[in-house]
Design a protein that fits this description.
Length: 488
C-alpha cells in the first residue's frame, strides 16, 4: 500500500498498517520529509522498547516494512492508496487524478479527510467507484475508531473491503455516508455548542460547566477540551459543518469562540483560551451550603431510576431507614424542609414554579455518573432558597453548582442535543444506531453513546427537554428530530 503524506496522521496510518504486516510506501511532496518522518517514528518506537511496551524485534520488523519513496510512480504497483494531506478539496482531487494515472484500475483510493465530501473528491476520476473515505483519529496507533465513508458513487464492495481491512488492523470500523462532518464531527457539535451558548448568556462560568460535564462522565469538559484542540481548529470545523449544511441554524458558530480566535486566544498553544495555561481550569468555587434541620422530613417523589437513586441516598442519610416515597407524583425529585427539588424536564425553575403554583422551589440537572460529582441546580423564590437547595444536594452526596435559571440546565440539554443530532444522522442514513454509539465512544471517548443516553433518559424526557429549549429560544436549533418524534 501507499500512504501519501508523512505528517502525524500519515505516519500513524503507516505504523498501524506495517504492524499488521503490510509493506507500506510513504510519499510526501516535501523533499526528504518521508525519510525524516520514518526516523522520528523509529525514535518514538525505541522509547516504547525502552519502557517495555514493544519488543526490539517487533519494532525492527515494523520499520523494515515502511519504505519512503521519492515519487508517486515508485509505488504504482500498490493495491491501496491512503491519502493524508492538507484538507483542501482541489489539492486532494488533483492528487487522486494523478495517482489514478499511475496505479491499476483495481487499486482502491482512500482519503483520510475529516470534513470534505468523498463524493466531491471522487469527481473527475475515471473510476470514482473505488474512492472511499478511511477516516482515522489522532493519535492513529491508539485511537480505535475508523469511519469508513462512502460517497455517492463508492462501490459497496469497496466500502466493505476497507471496513474489513480496518478491523483486521485491530480497529473498530463504522460505516458512514458522506455528509458534512460524517458521524463524529457532526454529532459532537452540541457538546461544544451548548456550553458556548450558556457562556454567551452568562448562565455559568467555564470552570463550572467543565466540572458539571466531567461529573456526567466526560473525560474533559468542553472549555478545557476546546483549549486543548485549539479554538481556531474547533471554530473552523464548526464553520465548515455550518456552511456545508447550507447554514442550518443548528450548527451556527459561536460569537464567544469567534472573539477568542480574533484575539489570538487559541488555548494551550498560545497560553490562553478560556483558561491560562499551563495552569488550566481553576478550582471550582464552592456553593454555600449549611446544615439541614436535624428533624427534617424527606420525601422522594416519582418513580424510575433517578427516584430510586435518590431514595437510596436519603436512606443512607437517615442511617438505613427507608425513605418516604410519593410514587404517584408526576415529577421526580425530593421534598425536604418545605422545599421541592425537581429533576429538570427542560422547563426553567420559574416556569415549573408557575405551573405548580409554588413560591419557592429548585430544579436540578442529570445526576452525576461520578460519585460525588458536580450537579447543577437553579432556584426561584426567597434568597435563602438557593442555600437550602445546595444544602439538600450536598447532604445527598453531590457537589451543588448554582447556575442561572436556564432551560435544560447544563448536562440534560447537552445530552438531549447529542441524542437529537444522532437521531437525525440515523434518520438520514448517515449511520446506524450501533455505529453512532461506537463512533462517539471510540472516536471522542464519550462515556456513553447517544442512544445509550436515550435509553437512560427515556425518549419522552429527551423530547420534553428539547421542546422546552425550543419554546424558550425558538428557531430551528432545538427542533426535535422526526426520528425521535416518531419514536415517542
Amino acid at each position: 500500500m501507499l500512504v501519501v503524506g508523512a505528517g502525524i496522521m500519515g505516519m500513524g496510518i503507516a505504523q498501524v498498517a506495517a504492524l499488521a504486516g503490510h509493506n507500506v510506501s510513504v510519499f510526501d511532496t516535501r523533499a526528504e520529509a518521508a525519510e525524516q518522518a520514518k526516523q522520528k517514528l523509529a525514535d518514538s518506537l525505541a522509547a516504547l522498547v525502552t519502557k517495555g511496551k514493544m519488543t526490539a524485534e517487533v519494532v525492527q520488523a515494523l520499520l523494515a516494512r515502511i519504505t519512503p519513496v521519492a515519487q508517486l510512480s515508485d509505488a504504482a504497483h500498490v493495491g491501496l492508496v491512503v491519502e493524508a494531506i492538507v484538507e483542501n478539496l482541489a489539492v486532494k482531487r488533483s492528487l487522486f487524478q494523478e495517482i489514478e494515472g499511475l496505479v491499476s484500475e483495481y487499486c482502491i483510493l482512500a482519503t483520510n479527510t475529516s470534513s470534505l465530501s468523498v463524493t466531491a473528491i471522487a469527481n473527475g476520476l475515471k473510476y470514482p467507484a473505488r474512492m472511499v473515505g478511511m477516516h482515522f483519529f489522532n493519535p492513529v496507533p491508539l485511537m480505535k475508531l475508523v469511519e469508513v465513508v462512502s460517497g455517492l458513487q463508492t462501490d459497496a464492495a469497496v466500502g466493505q473491503a476497507i471496513f474489513d481491512l480496518a478491523e483486521a488492523w485491530g480497529k473498530t470500523a463504522v460505516h458512514a455516508r458522506s455528509t458534512p462532518g460524517f458521524i463524529v464531527n457532526r454529532i459532537a457539535r452540541p457538546f461544544y455548542a451548548e456550553t458556548l451558548a450558556l457562556l454567551q448568556e452568562q448562565a455559568a462560568q467555564p470552570a463550572q460547566l467543565d466540572a458539571l460535564l466531567r461529573g456526567a462522565g466526560f473525560r474533559m469538559g468542553p472549555c478545557e477540551l476546546m483549549d486543548l484542540i485549539g479554538h481556531d481548529t474547533n471554530f473552523s470545523v464548526t464553520q465548515s459543518v455550518f456552511e456545508a449544511n447550507f447554514f442550518d441554524r443548528r450548527f451556527t458558530p459561536s460569537l464567544v469562540q469567534r472573539e477568542l480566535v480574533e484575539g489570538g486566544l487559541l488555548g494551550r498553544k498560545t497560553g490562553r483560551g478560556f483558561y491560562s495555561h499551563p495552569e488550566g481550569a481553576p478550582a471550582l468555587v464552592a456553593t454555600h451550603a449549611s446544615a439541614l434541620p436535624a428533624n427534617a422530613q424527606w420525601v422522594v417523589h416519582g418513580i424510575g431510576a433517578v427516584a430510586d437513586t435518590l431514595a437510596t441516598a436519603v436512606s443512607q442519610l437517615l442511617g438505613g431507614k427507608a425513605a418516604s416515597r410519593a410514587t404517584s407524583s408526576n415529577w421526580v425529585g425530593v421534598e425536604v424542609a418545605g422545599l421541592q427539588l425537581h429533576q429538570t424536564d427542560g422547563r426553567p425553575a420559574w416556569q415549573v414554579a408557575q405551573d405548580a403554583r409554588l413560591k419557592d422551589m429548585a430544579v436540578f440537572d442529570e445526576l452525576p455518573a461520578v460519585a460525588g460529582g458536580a450537579l447543577a441546580f437553579a432556584c426561584v423564590g426567597r434568597e435563602e432558597t438557593s442555600e437550602l437547595a445546595a444544602s439538600v444536594l450536598h447532604a445527598l452526596g453531590y457537589v451543588p453548582v448554582l447556575v442561572s435559571d436556564t432551560p435544560g440546565l447544563v448536562v440534560a440539554r447537552t445530552v438531549a442535543m447529542l441524542v437529537n443530532e444522532a437521531a437525525d444522522a440515523v434518520l438520514q442514513g448517515v449511520c446506524t444506531l450501533e455505529g453512532a454509539n461506537a463512533a462517539m465512544k471510540l472516536g471522542v471517548n464519550y462515556p456513553a453513546g447517544p442512544f445509550d443516553w436515550l435509553d437512560r433518559m427515556g425518549r419522552a424526557r429527551v423530547v420534553a427537554v428539547l421542546h422546552a429549549l425550543d419554546a424558550c429560544y425558538r428557531g430551528e436549533r432545538y427542533r426535535v428530530s422526526p426520528w425521535l418524534q416518531r419514536a415517542v
